[in-house]
């Protein structure tokens, strides 16, 4: 039997005036799948994510999560979804721990103390637990934004460059954690990255965007074979150079 997708995007389009940032893209994400969104700067990755999160309204097309239409079941859907990105803002005068409590309260979570302890441990933030957010390094801040996303125990996680400012050790741990969450709780993850090795290592499938259009879709191996290149990095360079 085919499992229904947790996310289904049909002919999704976003125009900013005359400019088309996302051009009628369609794809699905299965439960427990890690889907990588790849593409050169300006390809439309962030715009796509923002539509999926209900932060900007699509010009046309449809987004369904858990079989429900986002446009008409926003609250219900967004309760089960979370995201992390470096451009989200948070109260900088509050400590790491206080920030997590704020999120937990906003979402009306129960068992907050356990959840906060749990996430602080998972993301190895014990030492910065009582540090105010303003004083965090960029990698520590990235971990805090990830912690906020994990805290609500979402079914779908959208991550915009989750490991961008992390050192290789922490980045490795975060990737391991994401894979473990997917394994243990069936979490589905859609993420962007400019790190090709990470894409190859993490993604069950990759969607390659160029100028708002899907130009390739499949496993890293399939995409590399289709383009007849040595690895994903070479495919990326080929596509990116075509779009300039
Ligand atoms: N609010 C906006 N108004 C006008 N154009 C926009 C707006 N937001 C994004 N764009 C344009 O849409 C295109 C896609 O941008 P987007 O941020 O989605 O790209 P991206 O794939 O996330 O790129 P990057 O890798 O640089 O993060 C870009 O050309 C961008 O300039």
From TrEMBL:
Enzyme class: hydrolase
Listed InterPro entries: AAA+_ATPase, ABC_transporter-like_ATP-bd, ABC_transporter-like_CS, ABC_transporter_ATP-binding, P-loop_NTPase
Keywords, sorted A to Z: ATP-binding, Hydrolase, Nodulation, Nucleotide-binding, Transport
Keyword field contains Secreted: no
Any Pfam family: ABC_tran
SUPFAM superfamilies: P-loop containing nucleoside triphosphate hydrolases (SSF52540)
Family listed: Belongs to the ABC transporter superfamily.
Residues in coiled coil: none
EC number(s) from the headed UniProt entry: 3.6.3.-
PROSITE patterns assigned to the protein according to its UniProt record, in alphabetical order: ABC_TRANSPORTER_1 (PS00211), ABC_TRANSPORTER_2 (PS50893)
Record flagged with keyword Membrane: no
Annotated ranges, domain ABC transporter: 7-236
Protein's name in the database: ABC-type transport system, ATP-binding component
A GO molecular-function descriptor: ATP binding
């Amino acid at each position: 039997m085919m499992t229904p997708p947790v996310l289904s995007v049909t002919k999704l389009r976003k125009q900013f005036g005359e400019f088309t940032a996302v051009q009628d893209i369609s794809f699905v994400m299965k439960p427990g799948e890690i889907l990588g969104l790849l593409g050169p700067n300006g390809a439309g990755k962030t715009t796509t994510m923002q539509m999926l999160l209900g932060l900007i309204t699509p010009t046309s097309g449809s987004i369904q999560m858990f079989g429900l239409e986002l446009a008409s079941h926003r609250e219900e859907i967004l309760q089960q979804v979370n995201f992390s990105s470096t451009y989200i803002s948070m109260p900088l005068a509050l400590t790491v721990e206080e920030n997590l409590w704020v999120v937990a309260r906003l979402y009306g979570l129960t068992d907050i103390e356990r959840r906060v302890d749990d996430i602080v441990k998972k993301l190895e933030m014990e030492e910065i637990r009582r540090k105010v957010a303003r004083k965090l390094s960029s990698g520590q801040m990235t971990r805090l934004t990830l912690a906020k996303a994990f805290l609500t125990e979402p079914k779908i996680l959208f991550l915009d460059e989750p490991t961008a400012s992390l050192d290789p050790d922490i980045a490795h741990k975060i990737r391991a954690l994401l894979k473990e969450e997917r394994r243990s709780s069936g979490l589905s993850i859609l993420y962007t990255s400019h790190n090709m090795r990470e894409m190859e290592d993490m993604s069950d499938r990759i969607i390659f965007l160029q100028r708002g259009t899907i130009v390739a879709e499949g496993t890293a191996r399939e995409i590399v074979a289709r383009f007849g290149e040595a690895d994903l990095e070479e495919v990326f360079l080929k596509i990116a150079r075509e779009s300039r």
